[in-house]
Amino acid sequence: MQDASNITEHVDRLAIAAACALIGDRWSLPIVAALLEGPRRFGEIQERVPAIAPNILSARLRSLEQDGLVLAQRYSRRPPRFEYALSSDGEALVPALGALAAWASRRSGVEPPTHALCGTELELQWWCPTCQEPAVLHDEAATLA
Q1: What domains, with CATH codes, occur in the chain?
Q2: E runs forming strands in 11-86
């Protein structure tokens, strides 16, 4: 586990506030999670997020589309019906969703995700795709973009 005091040096609080403004309501992340496996129609999303009212789902889908996280493809003119998919920005939320899901699992006492080969609990960490090395956030040379 990484030292929280070292991580906080690299956290951009304004960026987190901006992210929360886009996806910080009760339903946005569950809708994004419902689209992780691929495009879905309205009814299919509602099945995957059963507690959401249809009017709220419609409003959130419009909002996520306006914010560029979800793409809507019309498949019927009359009545107008759409299939929804994550945009590349929406797909970029996958690591954050994984981290939140693992955190929520630990808090609720549910087994967190584990490695299929050895059974060890999985961890998310920063990684440099250029050097192909994990980033050590407490290293003063490591910075987050």
Answers
A1: 4-134 (1.10.10.10)
A2: 40-41, 70-76, 81-86
